[in-house]
Amino acid sequence: MTKEALAREFQTRYQQEPEYFFFCPGRVNLIGEHIDYNGGKVMPCAISLGTYLLVSKNTDKKIRLQCINFPETAALQLQSSYSKTGSEWFNYPLGVINEILQLGHELSGMNMLFYGNLPIGAGLSSSASIEVCTGTALSQIFGLSISGTDMAVLSKKVENEFIGMNCGIMDQFAVAMGKKDKAILLDCDTLDYEYLSFNIGDHVLAIINSNKERKLTDSKYNERFAECGRALKKLKQVLPAENLCDISVAEFEKAKSIINDPVLEKRALHVITENERVSQSKEALINGELSRFGELMYASHQSLKELYEVSGAELDTIVEFSKTYKDCIGARMTGAGFGGCAIALVKKDSFDDFAARLIPYYKGRVGYEPEVFASEIGDGARKI
User: What string of DSSP letters covers 234-300?
Assistant: First the structure.
């Protein structure tokens, strides 16, 4: 939808013009999966799809939340705190509003209209996009001067405590702090970060939506989170580590017998090797070795499939096809898995052919079609 069409929709719903207009992107993680909650380094980037938010203040002290994508609406009296009710979409912005109130900031009544062009449940961080979009809007409208880093931390707290999802910081950080044509190398333990030029030359970043929706809170995500905690607890008996990602592959090989659980051992091995792949990927990007970067993407997917067991027939089918396509140099699932999206590095001139061949290949094995689109690497949350 265009900005003008969104403004007309706001006018129709609220009988007033929107005063403010914000956008927050979604993200893909280029490499470094399921290590953000294990103190590792990740390499996400913001994409060109995301969440739009139109806001006007009102005088009747009501918080009104509507979304073009969902039928459920909320109209709540402005009060000092809120709590989650049910599983409706508006719990995400409501959690941010609640957290900002708990920090001692004063808000007025607002009419808010959201619209997203991210596929919901596709693993492109639609929930983080809504949270950071809401927080960025409140910060700017009410002069709160919350930094991008603090906004990411605040939104993660909402996700963990208000929504009840044990996610790490990566998604919120990537959509708050994204930069055009840059990957973010983020240390999830310290929040130290640097921008890396994602110079892919005559290649394009393809995003392939498996169209298998995954609901993280209903999935095995929290189970993996707990498994990593149990593995770390055992390893700490013999290693001085605060997080699994503090442990090198060599240290793990010497100490792994103390885990005495083949499943926990596999989970820890994925985390520790994936963290090392992120460092290797940084070197590949700095040295312009894109084919090496692609090899690391394939290795990451293999580990997520075999050791962490969060892939599935749909994502594996995409990666299997990518390996057979001569102008694709790397592919992997991205996000939490259990469905969602994969990414691939494909030659620009071959992108249309890649998509045209992948779709029937996938449908023949899975039974329905995926969506394939090329994405630009974009900026983070902002007023537009």
Answer: HHTTTS--SSGGGS-HHHHHHHGGGT--HHHHHHHHHHHHHHHHHHHHHHHHHTT-HHHHHHHHHHH
CA-CA distance, 321 to 219, in Å (whole number)? 26
Residue 218 pLDDT > 60: no
Domain made up of 3-196: CATH architecture: 2-Layer Sandwich (3.30)
* CA separation for the pair 25, 289 (Å, rounded): 28
Region 56-62 average pLDDT: 96
pLDDT at residue 103 in the model: 96
b/e sequence 288-327, b meaning 16+ C-beta within 10 Å: eebebbbbbbbbbbebbbebbbbbbebbbbbbebbeebee
Let me know if 202 is a catalytic residue.
no
pLDDT of residue 284: 96
Measured between alpha carbons, how far is 89 from 227 in angstroms, rounded to an integer?
A: 29
Sequence-ordered alpha helix ranges (H) in the chain:
3-14, 91-102, 126-141, 148-157, 170-177, 221-235, 249-255, 262-286, 290-306, 313-324, 351-366
Distance CA 158, CA 93 (A): 9
Q: Active-site residue among 36, 171, 246, 316?
A: 171
C-alpha 116 chain-centroid distance: 15
pTM: 0.91
Say how many residues make up the chain. 384
pLDDT of residue 219: 65
Stretch 293-317: mean pLDDT, rounded?
97
* CATH numeric code, 198-375: 3.30.70.890
Predicted confidence (pLDDT) at residue 167 exceeds the cutoff of 90 = no
- Taking a C-beta distance cutoff of 8 angstroms, is the pair 165, 32 a contact? no
Question: What stretch of H or E contains 205?
Answer: strand 203-209
Where in the chain are all domains bearing CATH 3.30.230.10? 3-196
Mean pLDDT of 332-353: 94
Q: Are 205 and 159 in contact (CB under 8 A)?
A: no
Cβ atoms within 10 Å, residue 262: 8
**Range list for CATH 3.30.70.890 in the chain:** 198-375
